[in-house]
Amino acid sequence: MKKKLLVFLMMLFLCPISFSSQNIVIPDLGPAGVRGLSIAAEKNFGEYFFRKANGAGLVSYDPVLNEYINSVGNRLILHANNVYFPFHFYLSEDPSLNASAFLGGVVQVNAGLFHYTSTEDEFASVIAHEICHVTQRHIARMIEDQAEKSSLSVASIIGSIVLGIINPNVGMAALSSTTGLMQQSNINFTRDNEYEADRLGIDLLYNSGFNPMGMADLFRVLLSKQGNVSSVYAMLIDHPLSDIRVAEAYNRAKQLPKRENSKNPNYMFAKARVDVRYMNLNLETLKNKLMHTQKVNHYYKYYALALIAYENKDNASALKYLSMLDSIKDNDFILDLKTDIEISQKNYKAAIEPLERMYKIKPNDSSITLNLANALIESKDYKKAIKILKNFQNTYPKNLLASELIAKSYYLSKDKCNAHQSQAYSYLLRGDFNKANRFLNNALHVCNGTSREIVRAKLKKYNDIKLFDRMFEQNI
User: Is the per-residue pLDDT at 7 higher than 60?
Assistant: First the structure.
């Protein structure tokens, strides 16, 4: 390992830097956790990765889909062992069937995972598998194993993995040039991890109330696609299957008490939303198919038809199709679309009233909160929108959409001091430090008194984060 990097790692481990303002934590690399990567370091690399993912436009801030994904992920986390840090699940618009875990509990869920699974239990099985890769520290151990068997630094390997997730073409090239061909022992090590994640993932599915057979069902479908060279089955590249692995998953699930598949309508709503908005399907073809087939889930059918009608600016038909789902009360997916329709017609009161009622019941529901804030902004009630968004940011500090909405609220209410600071924070979340500092410098020119001192403190803190990212990247 390079001397400069070694000194840098020791300095950060001995003097970890943490800031409560805006809940930003500067990553430290730290020494041994399993052998060389500490829990704290793993968590902080997750923060680094998420900035890069935001900056690359990889994170989709569809409020209702992200709320659903996190509801499934957090339901599983409640029953998982060895959870050492908060997990963060996010949607990628990638249409391939895959999900990816990274250090620190960051889990990317591709839009294609909804399209190519058939039940919520199959969908949840992939999330459970990825959670177990993190809780068992498979990624940390793989990195340490590579570092021990080569002259590579931990930074080099982590940097290549970050590139591989954010930009697969660049990342795989970087990983190949960095690590070379993996030896047979490394392939075995990875296979052992996959089997362990399968075993623990099935138990986690069952303990969380899902059908543990969901993983085996999905594996059987994927095994039939194993020879398919289509890139949509990216999961088969990251998690290759064998007859033995599929059989073991089936036998383990069969040992557990039998359970029916989940009937949660939100999975079907999510699947329909992905098909209409993220899979690049021909919507007219999809509409005709839904109109002329009986063999389709009721929730999927009418929500998909309502979304298609809305996309075609046919609000009357959209509301007609949503009325077919009236048995589902106070549902995020339905409320989200109704809100969009009301706002498009400038019926702000009709949009706000049901959201405010639900906000009192579920104040931590990100879909309800962000929809309400947006409706308030559209109705020019900036003060109330800001209050709601500031409370939301205390719980979800990394939500870029919330940061953009609060910046918009401040700008429209002519509060340039807070507007510039909020816009700076949005750029910090993207890892764009130059623009973040530019907006903070703009804030210095319009803020007064205590606010001006707060801006100066943020400039220092943001620059410290920038320093870490730059020093880390120079040693990749």
Answer: no
